[in-house]
Design brief:
- This protein has one domain.
- 75% of the residues lie in helices and 0% in strands.
- The protein is rod-shaped.
- The chain contains eight helices and no strands.
- The longest helix has 59 residues.
- The protein has 257 residues and is an all-alpha fold.
Length: 257
Amino acid sequence: MSTSVNTIKRLLWILLGVSILTYLISLNMENHFVSVDSKWLSNDFLFAIAVGIFASLVVVLVCEIVRYKQMKIATENVLLMSFGNLYGQFLIIRGNCNRALNSKEIVSDNLIQSICNNANTIADSIQGTDYTLFCKSNKANQLLTQFKSDKYLALKSILTNFAFLRIAIWEDGKVLLSQGKQNLVTSECVNTNKALNKIVSQSTTILTYLDQIILQMDDALGNRYNWQNIKQSLNTYQDNYIGQQLDDYLKEDVVVF
């Protein structure tokens, strides 16, 4: 969007210059400050050229403004969906960790790895979004700027630290092996339990922040995203989610698209 904004600004300056030139030519036609009438050149000819350039610039400017507005709406929709997807990823992370804490099953060392990768990709996409506006006081723009400057790196750091869950599982596995037991790490193991609880706590904090920024951004954009209903659907799905077991999967009929 920055390219479109810069183009509109340049067109406005050029249009201003051409307007002044056209006005000066019209004054000269009336008052004859400078005599340009000759066999090959006249005030009327210069005026016609200036008016033609002015009209063409107006058309180009209008087209660029329309393009800017379309890009603005499209970018805002992408931002809202990206923040919503990021919320969903952290919701899955917290849900997986809570289910691991509430069961005695083996905790996989890749329990949240792929989800963290998805969250990282979405955060990078938001950080790289070009949402340059004419009005710097735009609420949505302020919220995005705040995320980029204050929260992005902190969020990336937290996602990176979530990898310590794997280390905790490996450490607990070594302890079990040293005790002559099988390397079957569950949430009852000390390090794994602490890591899972910490991830749940940090995910809850991030979810609260994301909920607020999406709610404020959606409100600033006329509630076009309908975030409250989407959030409710996401939370309901996670609350009622039951992981599919291998036997259930193998019994399923093959679905052909």
